[in-house]
C-alpha cells in the first residue's frame, strides 16, 4: 500500500479567530485572549466551538495568524498575521509552577502521543521495531497513528495491548479505498482480543483523513461523506466510539461541517508556525485557540475539542520568535502539558491534547512552509 511522506507532513499553523460580529463584509482583527481571560473552556461536559456562529462567520469574518489557505495551485498561502499577545507573566508562571508540581512527566496519562511506523528511507518498520517503539509510549493514555498501511493498525494494537490500557487512536490519512482501509482496522481490532468481550475498547477514536482540506486533497463534501460512510461501517462492526475527521483549526473554521460530522472536533494546532509565539508560550497559545472558539460559539450546540497534534521542533530554521532547539522544545512541550493537564484524581477526564510527536520522523520531506524542521518534532529519544 502506498503512502506519501509529504502528505503526512505536520500541520501548517492554523489559527483563526471568530468574531462575535454578525457582519460578513468586514475583516476584523481580535486580540488573542489568554488562558486567564478564558479560565477553562473545557469545564463542563462539552465545549462550544464550531456551531451556528462558525457557520455565520466563516464566510468572511475569519482571520488567520499564519493560517494556511490554498491558492489555485493548491499550495498553502499564509494569511496576514496579527500579533500574539502574551499572557500576564506573573499568572502564567504561577500556573506553570502549580501544574508542574501536580503534573510532571510522570503524568503522561493526560495526553495522547503521535506515532508513525516508518524507517528514515520511508519503508515500513517491522513488527519488533514497532513493538519496541510502542513500549516506550506506555505511560500515555493513547497513541495516535495515521494510516492503515504497513499493517500498522494491527501491529500497534498488538504492541499496545499488553501495556495496561494504552489505547490506539486509529486513522486513515486518505480516502482512497475507504472500505478496504476500514476493513483493515476492523480486522486488526478483531485479531486483538484486547478487552474481554469488547475488542473495540482498545480504540480511542477512528479518524477519517488528516488535514485533507488544508492540503486541498479533498473537498469538504467528500470528507463529510467519507466520515458518514465510515461511521456506518464501523457501527455495523460493533464500534460505538468517536469517528472524526482531523484538520487544522483554519480548515475547521472555513468548513464547519467537518466539526459537525465528527463526534468531536479534532484539530491539529502548532504554535511554531506563528512567528510571534515563543516556545514557552506554546501552551497558552494552543489553549487560546480552543478558547476563542469556545467563547465565540454559544450553546446549545456544544462539542468537545481535541487538539490532535501539537508540539515543537528541536531543530530547523527560526520562524521569527519561534526558534527550534532542544531547550525550546522542552519549554514548549512543558507549556503544552501545563495548559492541558488533567486533574490526576479525576481518572475519567477526557484527554484534550495529542503531543506531536513521539520520535523524529526522518522519512518526512520539508517544503517551503516547514522551516527545515519537518523531521525534528520527536520529543523522545534524545
Ligand atoms: C499483520 O500482522 C499480523 C501480526 O504479525 C499478521 O498476523 C497479519 O497477517 C499481518 N497482516 C498483513 C496484511 O500483513
UniProtKB/TrEMBL annotation:
Low complexity: compositionally biased ranges: 90-103
Region Disordered: start-end pairs: 68-103
Keywords: Hydrolase, Signal
GO biological process: cell wall organization
InterPro entries given in the database record: Beta-glucan_modifiers, GH
Transmembrane annotation, as ranges: none
Annotated compartments: Cell envelope
Protein family (similarity comment): Belongs to the glycosyl hydrolase 17 family.
Protein name in the entry: Glycoside hydrolase
Organism (species): Aspergillus saccharolyticus JOP 1030-1
Lineage: Eukaryota, Fungi, Dikarya, Ascomycota, Pezizomycotina
Amino acid at each position: 500500500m502506498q503512502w506519501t511522506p509529504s502528505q503526512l507532513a505536520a500541520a501548517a499553523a492554523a489559527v483563526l479567530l471568530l468574531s462575535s460580529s454578525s457582519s460578513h463584509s468586514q475583516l476584523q482583527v481580535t486580540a488573542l485572549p489568554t488562558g486567564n481571560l478564558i479560565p477553562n473552556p473545557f469545564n463542563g461536559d462539552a465545549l462550544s466551538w464550531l456551531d451556528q456562529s462558525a457557520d455565520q462567520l466563516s464566510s468572511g469574518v475569519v482571520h488567520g495568524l499564519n493560517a494556511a489557505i490554498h491558492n489555485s495551485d493548491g499550495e498553502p498561502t499564509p494569511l496576514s498575521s496579527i500579533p500574539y499577545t502574551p499572557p500576564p507573566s506573573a499568572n502564567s508562571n504561577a500556573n506553570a509552577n502549580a501544574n508542574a508540581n501536580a503534573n510532571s512527566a510522570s503524568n503522561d496519562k493526560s495526553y495522547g502521543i503521535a506515532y508513525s511506523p516508518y524507517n528514515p528511507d520511508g519503508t515500513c518498520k517491522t513488527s519488533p521495531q514497532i513493538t519496541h517503539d510502542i513500549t516506550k509510549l506506555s505511560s500515555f493514555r493513547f497513541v495516535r497513528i495515521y494510516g492503515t498501511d504497513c499493517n500498522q493498525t494491527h501491529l500497534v494494537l498488538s504492541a499496545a495491548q499488553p501495556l495496561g490500557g494504552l489505547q490506539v487512536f486509529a486513522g486513515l490519512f486518505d480516502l482512497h479505498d475507504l472500505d478496504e482501509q476500514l476493513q483493515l482496522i476492523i480486522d486488526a481490532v478483531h485479531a486483538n482480543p484486547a478487552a474481554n468481550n469488547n475488542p473495540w475498547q482498545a480504540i480511542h477514536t477512528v479518524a477519517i483523513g488528516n488535514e485533507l482540506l488544508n492540503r486541498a486533497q479533498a473537498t469538504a463534501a467528500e470528507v463529510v461523506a467519507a466520515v458518514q460512510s465510515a461511521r456506518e461501517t464501523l457501527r455495523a462492526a460493533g464500534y460505538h466510539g468517536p469517528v472524526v475527521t482531523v484538520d487544522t483549526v483554519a480548515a475547521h473554521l472555513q468548513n464547519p461541517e467537518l466539526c459537525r460530522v465528527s463526534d468531536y472536533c479534532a484539530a491539529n494546532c502548532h504554535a511554531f508556525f506563528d512567528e510571534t509565539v515563543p516556545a514557552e508560550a506554546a501552551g497558552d497559545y494552543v489553549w487560546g485557540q480552543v478558547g476563542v472558539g469556545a467563547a465565540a460559539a454559544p450553546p446549545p450546540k456544544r462539542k468537545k475539542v481535541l487538539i490532535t497534534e501539537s508540539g515543537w521542533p528541536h531543530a530547523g530554521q527560526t520562524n521569527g520568535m519561534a526558534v527550534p532547539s532542544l531547550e525550546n522544545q522542552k519549554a514548549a512541550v512543558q507549556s503544552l502539558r501545563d495548559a492541558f493537564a488533567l486533574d490526576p484524581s479525576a481518572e475519567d477526564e477526557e484527554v484534550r491534547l495529542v503531543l506531536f510527536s513521539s520520535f523524529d520522523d526522518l522519512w518526512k520531506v520539508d517544503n517551503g512552509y516547514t522551516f527545515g524542521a519537518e523531521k525534528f518534532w520527536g520529543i523522545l529519544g534524545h
